[in-house]
Amino acid sequence: MRHRSIVTRLQVTMDLHWSDRNKTHRNACADIVAAMRRVTQRLGVPNAKRLGRLAALAIPVIAATAAIAQNTPTISGGIGFFTSTTGGNTNYIPYAKPVLVAPLGSYLTVETRATVLETFFSRASKGYQHSFFKTMDYLQADVFAGPHLTLVGGEFLTPFGTYNERLTQIWMETFQDLPLVYGVGTMNTGSSVGGMIRGSAASTPRFSLDYAAYYSGNSTNSYFGAERSSGGKGEVYLPAAGLEIGASYGRSLAGTHENFEGMHLWWQPIESGFRFRSEYGHAPNASGYWLETDYRLSRFGGADSALGRLEPVFRLQQTFRGKQDSNDGLPSVDTQRADFGLDYHLPHELRIDTSYSRQFSSRGDVNIWETGIVYRILLPAWKGHLK
Amino acid sequence: MNRAGLAILCCLGIAATAGRAQDNAAPQNKQSSSTAKSAGTGETDRGQQVFEQNCARCHSAPEGFSPRISGTVARHMRVRANLSQVDYKALMKFLHP
Known about the structure:
The structure holds two protein chains of two kinds.
Chain A: H1 2-19, H2 25-43, H3 46-66, E1 74-86, E2 89-104, E3 108-122, E4 128-146, E5 149-157, H4 163-166, E6 191-203, E7 208-217, E8 229-238, E9 243-252, E10 258-267, E11 274-283, E12 286-295, E13 310-321, E14 335-346, E15 350-361, E16 366-380
Antiparallel strand pairs in A: 1-2, 1-16, 2-3, 3-4, 4-5, 5-6, 6-7, 7-8, 8-9, 9-10, 10-11, 11-12, 12-13, 13-14, 14-15, 15-16
Chain B: H1 2-39, H2 42-53, H3 70-80, H4 85-95
Helix pairs in contact in B: 2-4, 3-4
């Protein structure tokens, strides 16, 4: 997550460099590597690494003693291999996002997700440079405190809009790139360290009402990076119409205090392969939106037919820049972008993604070609007992 | 480059292990799914609704998984999809009747 945010920024940096004719390709790559080093050096804290390793070892051991019935801890997530070509330069990215979920007793669950990837990008002279990145997206304890209340503590995904919490897993997102407005309300890292309350305030066959509210402290280490902030969101879902409408609010409490607002609308008619998703984000000095539609062609011969495995996807994005502000993560100039994708769902949870994007801005228009193959994992962490 | 090679090897290793595990697990889940349909109780119907209206809003159903993890999957969804306790129990009943 954090890396995707960093990569998005680096991508912008690369675009800027490549649009600047006074800079050579070699200089641009060197700057990118230096920027990555600065990021890792700034965030590196050895004690946090030890704590992370200890937690990773302790959770399965504790869970093994507490696991009952169908509550065997799971390993899930996705692994993939992506390519991305921007302005004629191609990156190759082996990528893994494993998730571990371990129930501990009847009321407590511990879950964690990591991001591990290696980026290979071409040198100006010959061959490829590469950079390794790993981080913890979240490591949280969930306590089921009541029928409509869950308490969450630790590092968790910041609840703002829909994309951060729902679609940042690589086997779930339809495009490789995050939306341009992803930075709004996600407080630079996408993760928070502190506490959150969440749950379903009301749930009937006619509608459901969900909520989440959180407070995060400041954390600067490489595994649990977060910014002091608070916020929350609420959403209503109408099952008969397949319609969801929600609003989000976030307040950054680090440095200059800033407010972020967001709205989202999802529409997914029941028993239809069609899906519409949209989100709007507003920051003090910028705003933007994305609209995405996709249609799984299952109607044509079934989901397992050659045609039924296809899923065309389209996304439209636009951002508007007021004053320059490095905190909101939006492009520094007004930007428009159209993404055309075609995904193919292979058997055994494999998916091939392809997309072409055209991005327009006053800094120069660019073409972005992306391909990838993603595998979805869901299996027990070990052989458990079954009632 | 060593680290890069190690990362790629790890990815391939995980994929191979996961592939084998899912192949083994899939029939068990298919069996439990068919049992769920044949049971046809109100709670499993509600559980199916919960799945379609909450989980399927973001992702498709997995091709199959071991019944040993059905409770864990339901718990994960309780947090991710903000399920109430009633809906969580219905989903659990649907995943492992």
